[in-house]
Predict the structure.
Amino acid sequence: MSTGAGIDYSAWDHIYVSDDEDVTNPWAFLLGGQNTFCSCPPSTSIHYLISVLVLPSASPNWGRADRHLLEARLERMVEFQQRGEDLDNNVLECKRLLEEAQGRLKELEEGRNEGEEDEEREAELKKVQAEVKKLKKDEKSFEKMTEKLRREEKKLPWDVDTISKEGFSKSVLNIKPVTKEETEEEKVEKHKTFVEKYAKEIKHFGMMRRWDDSQKYLSDNTHLVCEETANCLVVICIDFEIDEKHALMEQVAHQAIVVQFILDLGRTLKVDARGCFRQFFSKIKTADKPYVDAFDHELELLKERIRSCAQIRMDSAMKELEGEERQKRLGPGGLDPVAVYESLPKEIQKSFDEKNIEMLQEAISKLDLEEGKYHLSRCIDSGLWVPESGEGDDEEDDEEEDS
């Protein structure tokens, strides 16, 4: 059968319907029962077949037959699966019993080899040997049954449930994962580990001057596009400022602002900063004046903060050094000789400058008794005056007698 349109419909002239799967074919019942082959002649038969296949409601027995065939197929599937599960359980149980029996047999044989022989032990040994023999026979029997079940499974007709099996299953939910906020200790440890690992690369990046060089280096080392790199560059700047290497400080500060601007761009675009650093270089190299002005402004602010931090660190270091020096020069009484000297009257200071003992004694004698004892005691405690044994007491006694 063909039409003038040039399309050949002759393939529909003889439709062959097979029910090789017995009752699994739902059309077998409708087309004449089980084991039926229907060759539809042209003309009227094709219209009936279409009415049955395409319009199931045309057949009054459609629903009942379909349910019957589906239930029969599902029952066979469940029965076959249950047979397989029961057989697997029996095999596992047989292997477990066989291992236990072999363990008991080994213990009994070792005991007999060591000379422990009695009638009860021999009877137990024979019993266990017979049990092991029976279990091995059962194991072989189960293996044959398993092989037979596998052959039956291969011969089963395919249907919509068995024609294929799921290779893997994966579900992906397009939601933002919940990230745990890091504690301060974790942040410090993360920064320390990162700097120890990439200190050389960070310092090399900090010394670059050209935009193209910086862009290429970050392309080759995208792991440097992070907060840890910016923080490390700022620390390097402070160290340079303390060492009075101002030009190097300004150069590294420039690179620190580069990294910071890239990170800010990533936060603005809500993307990973490692994927948008090229946009920053493209924007900064096209001389976008507002953007360049903002960059220069942030750079100047960073330099000021670096100078301030460097000054604070130097002041702290000076105070710490002065404290250590003061601690070293404390006298036997725990007083600072410099502080004590500055608190002495002018005449006593002059006697210490000239190292004149008579002048010191004369200056002290001119003072009130309590004031003289006070200054002399402080001089001894600070180490300015080191009297010989008993000298300090004698001088105090002399002052008391004069009074």
Remarks:
- The chain has 15 helices and two strands.
- Residues 66-155 form one domain.
- The first strand starts at residue 16 and ends at 17.
